């Protein structure tokens, strides 16, 4: 028969919780079976629960050190009113002689390896509490520092290799120098920056061609309302050299001047210290006259792209981002842009003579040629053919305008995305273009000053997609006064004419014949005698894609 477990009588405490302080306070009829010597201490619910029983504690050492420890007031401590000891003989498992009943349990934490992925990435350094935004900013600063460090190492490792590739691509000769040509003179570019010469205001000898009015609505174009660049395949553009110009031949026969050139050739000479790509100009001395010509298919007919940039372009000629491909693309964009921004309603401003290079019935692009004469020295005069592309009415007076377009092919090369920065940071975009295309912008400004244009318009044209070099959009058009823009880009007109005057004086000392001047690998001017004969044919150029 199973015995019945008897709980016993629980005394009633009329004064509060827990057992009464004395069992004598209970009613006489109540008998208690509470074991004697059971400790009890008042407690609070906020207190932590300590050890129930510590079998490994040494009471002798605890009592010996009790005087040195502060009072805790807890059961089992030296100053506890319920200090007691356990009778180990009452617990057979706790017999010290029976060692087989115990098992040692190591309570130390498992040692972790000092090296390893988990320890390295999961460790947490103690940090002071920070606000959430401060933590985010701290992470951003650390990421920027790390990114800058990687960029420095990357550029340092590639600097020598890129410089060699850039030098090889830049200084490729624009013409094959024949062994029978004789070297006559070498002039360092550093001497050109110190030259200075002042000329008086030019004299207009003749105006030819017709101009259409500029459409002012293009000044309000933004990247948000961009316009597609149109193609003008039916309009003819002429790139005629000096000696093939019938008007210049007529003026030469009339002894109107001693030196003859075009604005493109003069701008190339004036901005020679800024040039990086190789170029060449043919000089013909006929009697006492001097003619500056370009070869048919010369690089002067194209527009350089990223010429002064430090970022190297692909060397493969068939690459859409190579120097040659970008030059052809830039010339194509420039021609179409100069015709799209016009009011094509048939209303034109005509001049003394029609276009001297167009045949009857040809549709000619809007362009006017101003044949102007400058006095260089004594009886020496210079005549140049200058071009303007449009006219605009300001205060009931027609003002000449030159039209040119900057083109973006891939934002990764320039580091500035025109679609994002052009409207809000136009100054930063222009500064980047001045750094990457310093020579091209300087030549455009020099041509506008030579033509005495009242305004020069610069268009920002980009590809529809970086890998699509056939389709383009216009993102904006900005106008500048040529002389104000020249001072902004540090282009000195006195230095421009000083370079031209020094080259003219040097060439006037030569005998009759054909010569070649250009830029070589060491950025020196070369002046060579060209034994070839024959004139280049007039070129009617239209860049098509």
Count of beta strands: 17
Secondary structure category = alpha+beta
How helical, in percent, are the residues? Answer: 25-40%
Count of discrete alpha- or pi-helical segments spanning 4 or more residues? 12
Q: Could you report the average pLDDT, rounded to the nearest whole number?
A: 78
The succession of helices and strands, N to C, reads HHHEEEEHEHEEHEEEEEHHHHEEHHEEE
Biggest sheet descriptor: 10 strands, mixed
Beta-strand content bin = 15-25%
- Biggest sheet: strands side by side, in what order? 1-16-15-6-7-5-10-9-2-8
Tags for this model:
Eukaryotic translation initiation factor 3 subunit D, alpha+beta, initiation factor, single chain, 5-stranded mixed sheet, elongated, disordered C terminus, 545 residues
Give a verbal description of the structure.
Helices cover 26% and strands 22% of the residues. With 545 residues, it is an alpha+beta fold. The strands form 3 sheets. A 10-stranded mixed sheet has the order 1-16-15-6-7-5-10-9-2-8. It has a 5-stranded mixed sheet with strand order 3-14-13-12-11. Helix 5 crosses helix 10 and helix 5 packs across helix 12. The longest helix is centred in the first third of the chain and has 39 residues. It is elongated, with a radius of gyration of 46 Å. The C terminus is likely disordered.
């Amino acid at each position: 028969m199973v015995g019945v477990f008897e709980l016993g009588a629980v005394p009633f405490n009329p004064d509060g919780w827990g057992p009464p302080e004395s069992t004598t306070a209970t009613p006489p009829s109540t008998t208690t079976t509470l074991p004697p010597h059971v400790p009890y201490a008042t407690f609070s619910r906020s207190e932590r629960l300590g050890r129930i029983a510590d079998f490994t504690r040494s009471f002798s050492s605890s009592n010996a050190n009790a005087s040195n420890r502060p009072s805790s007031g807890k059961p089992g401590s030296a100053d506890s009113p319920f200090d007691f000891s356990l009778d180990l003989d009452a617990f057979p498992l706790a017999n010290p002689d029976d060692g087989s009943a115990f098992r040692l349990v190591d309570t130390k934490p498992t040692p972790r390896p000092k090296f390893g992925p988990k320890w390295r990435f999961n460790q947490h350094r103690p940090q002071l509490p920070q606000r959430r935004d401060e933590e985010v900013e701290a992470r951003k600063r650390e990421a920027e520092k790390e990114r800058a460090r990687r960029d420095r190492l990357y550029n340092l490792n590639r600097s020598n290799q890129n410089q060699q590739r850039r030098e090889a691509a830049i200084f490729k000769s624009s013409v094959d120098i024949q062994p029978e040509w004789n070297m006559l003179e070498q002039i360092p570019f550093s001497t050109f920056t110190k030259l200075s010469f002042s000329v008086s205001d030019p004299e207009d000898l003749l105006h030819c061609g017709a101009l259409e009015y500029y459409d002012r609505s293009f000044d309000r174009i933004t990247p948000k309302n961009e316009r597609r660049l149109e193609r003008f395949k039916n309009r003819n553009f002429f790139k005629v050299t000096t000696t093939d110009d019938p008007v210049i031949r007529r003026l030469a026969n009339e002894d109107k001047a001693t030196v003859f050139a075009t604005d493109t050739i003069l701008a190339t000479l004036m901005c020679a210290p800024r040039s990086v790509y190789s170029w060449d100009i043919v000089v013909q001395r006929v009697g006492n006259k001097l003619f500056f010509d370009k070869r048919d298919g010369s690089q002067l007919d194209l527009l350089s792209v990223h010429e002064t940039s430090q970022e190297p372009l692909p060397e493969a000629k068939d690459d859409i981002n190579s120097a040659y491909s970008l030059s052809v693309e830039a010339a194509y964009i420039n021609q179409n842009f100069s015709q799209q921004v016009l009011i094509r309603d048939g209303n034109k401003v005509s001049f003394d003579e029609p276009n001297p290079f167009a045949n009857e019935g040809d549709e000619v692009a809007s362009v006017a040629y101003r044949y102007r004469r400058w006095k260089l020295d004594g009886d020496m005069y210079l005549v140049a053919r200058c071009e303007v592309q449009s006219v605009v009415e300001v205060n009931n007076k027609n003002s000449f305008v030159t039209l040119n377009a900057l083109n973006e092919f891939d934002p990764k090369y320039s580091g500035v995305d025109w679609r994002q920065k052009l409207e809000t940071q136009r100054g930063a975009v222009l500064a980047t273009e001045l750094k990457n295309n310093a020579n091209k912008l300087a030549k455009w400004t020099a041509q506008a000053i030579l033509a005495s244009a009242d305004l020069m318009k610069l268009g920002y044209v980009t590809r529809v997609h970086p890998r699509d070099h056939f389709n383009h959009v216009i993102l904006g058009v900005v106008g500048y006064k040529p002389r104000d823009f020249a001072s902004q880009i540090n282009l000195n007109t006195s230095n421009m004419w000083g370079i031209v005057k020094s080259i003219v004086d040097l060439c006037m000392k030569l005998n009759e014949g054909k010569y070649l001047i250009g830029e070589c690998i060491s950025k020196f001017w070369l002046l060579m005698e060209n034994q070839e004969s024959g004139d280049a044919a007039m070129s009617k150029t239209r860049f098509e894609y």
